[in-house]
Amino acid sequence: MGTVKRLDATDKAKELIRELADEFGDLMFYQAGGCCEGTQPMCYMKGDYIPRTADVKIGSVCGYEFWVDRDLFEYWKNAHFTLDVLDGFGTGGFSLEMPRGKTFKVHYRIFSPEELEQLEELTYFE
Superkingdom, according to UniProt (predicted)? Predict the structure, then answer.
């Protein structure tokens, strides 16, 4: 039990994360379900954003926590997240990659029934 990861990242995303960490230090990711930033994953300096009670940590990328809004997670709880990066600007300007003309994006795929039985445990923000 607990062998299937809920989160992964493309090599391109990992490269950008390392660049951001070199400049800003420890990072964190948060994916909201709200209206302003849509559901675009946002990259912050660790501590610059505090998850809400019951938000869910689905894993880490390059050692940095990836949190998901509790309501959005309920919708996507049966899906694997792959963090990617695209050229261009996303829906807002708060994420650290924006000044570089980049935007993080998540690709989703639904877990198989076998994978669902072997998912890593979740962490909830308290």
Answer: Bacteria
The answer to whether residue 18 sits within a structural domain is yes
123 in a structural domain: no
CATH number of the domain enclosing 93:
2.60.300
In a domain, 118, yes or no: no
Residue 44 belongs to domain spanning: 7-113
What is the pTM for the complete model shown?
0.91
Domain total of the chain: 1
pLDDT classification of 88: cutoffs 50, 70, 90: confident
Query: pLDDT for 98-111, tens place per residue?
Result: 889 999 999 999 99
Written as one string, the DSSP assignment of the chain is ---B-SEEE-HHHHHHHHHHHHHH-SEEEEE--SSSSTT-EEEEETTSS-PPTT-EEEEEETTEEEEE-HHHHHHHTTEEEEEEEEES--S-S-STTGGGTEEEEEEEEEPPHHHHTTBPPPEE--
